[in-house]
Design brief:
The complex is a heterodimer of chains A (150) and B (174). Chain A is an alpha+beta fold and 150 residues long. Helices cover 27% and strands 29% of the residues of chain A. Chain A folds into 2 domains: 29 residues; 117 residues, Ferric Hydroxamate Uptake Protein, Chain A, domain 1. Chain B has one domain: Arp2/3 complex 21 kDa subunit ARPC3, CATH 1.10.1760. Classes of the chains: A alpha+beta (150), B mainly alpha (174). At the A-B interface, helix 1 and helix 3 of A face helix 5, helix 6 and helix 7 of B.
Chain lengths: 150, 174
């Protein structure tokens, strides 16, 4: 690789970092600070395809992201939650187990999926972001499903 | 009608493109599909690159599961092939030019999907989709630029050499 190519790559990286900070500055993620009540429902798919509810409660949290809520639920022993990876990873952490029901085959599932019918960000985009980048708001409903169909 | 050898080439190149995508899928938004599509659109007889897009997209659906994104792949990758066809007389074989196009393409990729999202689920959904993926589009942009800058010349040169040899063996297939 010659000097010119290095320079071009360096310039491209500078432009990319510039754009990245511009996006973070002009489009910051809006979060809601303070206490909130979130309805958490946990469903597990049975062998016959039906969904069994193993948890369905309104929980209180002051977390700002879904990951904060899950960590709190795990710490106060409401439900046990296992996450993989680091919050700083590009996609954040992954939800791999709730109450020791764990994804063992990542190719075929079942996996832990989640959705919300009233979280503004999930509704607007049509899907919820990763748990570390999904802001939560007072009154949100979140349904976690252990399923191999989506 | 396309000759048997053309159909084989389309199938093989679509499979190669799929394999490259699957192998690199652990790297978010880093791919060589853009590079390969640019080379196919430049080097192959007219229309063949579109057939590669269609075959590649169907194979992607078989690997990852069919969803609305598959429809997006059909028209978005076809758009790239069309764009390359239009820019070919201007950019010619300039790797700097193709690297720039690949970079801009990477940046626009999420926006193009957002357009489809807006058609399917409304403008707010499209806007939210684009906004959520913007940082990934930036990764797509810079990785596309670097990949094409470094690999366009060696891969396209080798590709054309192999293709010319094939034409020498089986005859011209325009």
């Amino acid at each position: 690789m010659n000097k010119k190519t290095f320079l071009k790559i360096g310039l491209a990286l500078v432009v990319a970092f510039g754009l990245f900070f511009a996006v973070k500055t002009f489009f910051p993620t809006q979060t809601e600070v303070g206490d909130k009540t979130i309805q958490v429902t946990v469903l597990v798919q049975q062998d016959d395809g039906s969904m069994e509810t193993i948890f369905d409660q309104a929980v209180k949290t002051d977390g700002e992201y879904l990951a904060d809520l899950l960590t709190e639920l795990n710490e106060n022993n409401t439900i046990s939650v296992t996450l993989a990876g680091e919050a700083t990873d590009l996609y954040g952490r992954s939800l791999i187990a709730i109450n020791d029901i764990e994804t063992t085959n990542w190719e075929t599932g079942p996996w832990w999926l989640y959705n919300s019918d009233n979280n503004p960000d999930c509704v607007a985009a049509g899907y919820c972001s990763g748990i570390d980048s999904c802001p939560i708001y007072d009154g949100d409903n979140f349904v976690f499903s252990y399923t191999s169909t989506y | 009608m396309r000759s048997a050898i053309q159909i084989v080439i389309i199938g093989m190149l679509a499979s190669l493109t799929l394999a490259s995508q699957v192998i690199m899928s652990f790297l978010p938004n880093v791919e060589i599909v853009t590079l390969l599509m640019i080379i196919y659109a430049i080097s192959l007889p007219k229309g063949n690159a579109f057939f590669i897009v269609i075959t590649f997209t169907v194979l992607e659906g078989l690997v990852w599961g069919f969803g609305d994104w598959v429809f997006g792949y059909f028209w978005i990758w076809s758009l790239l092939v069309l764009l390359v066809g239009l820019l070919k007389p201007i950019i010619k074989d300039n790797h700097d030019g193709w690297a720039l196009i690949a970079g801009l393409w990477g940046l626009a990729f999420g926006l193009l999907f957002a357009v489809q999202w807006a058609f399917l689920y409304g403008i707010t959904a499209g806007y939210a989709y684009w906004l959520k993926g913007l940082t990934f589009d930036i990764i797509h942009m810079v990785s596309n630029y670097i990949i094409v800058l470094l690999l366009y010349q060696p891969i396209s040169r080798q590709f054309r050499k192999l293709y010319d040899r094939l034409e020498g063996t089986y005859g011209h297939r325009n």
